[in-house]
Amino acid sequence: MKLQRKNGLRATALGALAVSGALVLTACGSDDNTGTAGGGKKTGAASNIKCDGAKGQLLASGSSAQKNAMDLWVKNYMAACPGVEINYKSSSSGEGIIAFNQGTVGFAGSDSALKPDEVAASKKICKSGQGINLPMVGGPIAIGYNLPGVKDLVLDAPTIAKIFNDKIKTWNDPAIAKLNPDAKLPSTPIQAFHRSDDSGTTQNLGKYLGKAAKADWPHDDEKKWPAPGGQAAPGSSGVAAQVKQAEGAIGYFELSYATSQNIPTVQIDTGASAPVAATSENASKAIAAAKVKGTGKDLALELDYTTKAEGAYPIVLVTYEIVCDSGNKAETLGTVKSFLTYTASEEGQKVLSEAGYAPIPAEINAKVRETVSGLS
Question: Taking the alpha carbons of 46, 71, 263, 211 in that order, is the dihedral positive or negative?
């Protein structure tokens, strides 16, 4: 059975990688291999990046969920556009939106769409417009754990809710044992870690638990951690670090953090025929069903957290880049448009798959590219 499962997962991954090319659009740029910023040459993977209008330094901040993707994007972009500096400060979605609405950054990263009061506040900065949401990064929120000797751990939404709501306290609890009949579960106390800062990752986990485990998760889906008990750590990197070093620990963070630190992740029993692993391909299956709920140029998405589709991983997030639809600062507008054109390009989206994220589906990504080109 395990061999069949591995072969099935391999086939799924290969199929998803083949599809990923269809999920993203061709990079906006020519193949002449010449840059326009600083007169430099384009090289290697950055060969299709267009630097038109980009200059100087661009400050941005926000979501730590997209940090690993942003690091790669910035590296590739700056290699293609000499003389341009992109400085993305990985903090939290809440801090990024505050910085954006204070006018100190050219764009912000957020794991959840702007709220009405945040849109209203943005109009003071976007003099002739307002802040809008551009979906740029997709991916699974992995539930990582540290339990030596236990592999392929399976949990469902009610059990996850009870763990993080301080109702299930040991790893050999009957609810966990029922989902893992072949595992030798120890009586080790559970150490549940959550984010100490306001986080869109927290909010998206809350949305999932609120939809899929209503009876066991009575909390609002806010950026601030709402449940009692547990231990807090700053950023996704902080939670991952605690899970990595503390036996009996469990926490939530983007898949790239689990992959880079070799942290095992929970498979989710969604009610489908088999538990679903946290992979970028499985997250893509869930994100592909998302619908645009924003109006006008705003592209905020509505995700289905209760999906039971085969192979669809339900705990997903989409990270938005927050920009002004109009009224952007003249000194950074060209760089914002150039950089976001790259991140939404075929090259930029391919980086997501390679880093454990999921590309944005083609129909939505087309709207993102169109919106970026019209920023003013």
Answer: negative
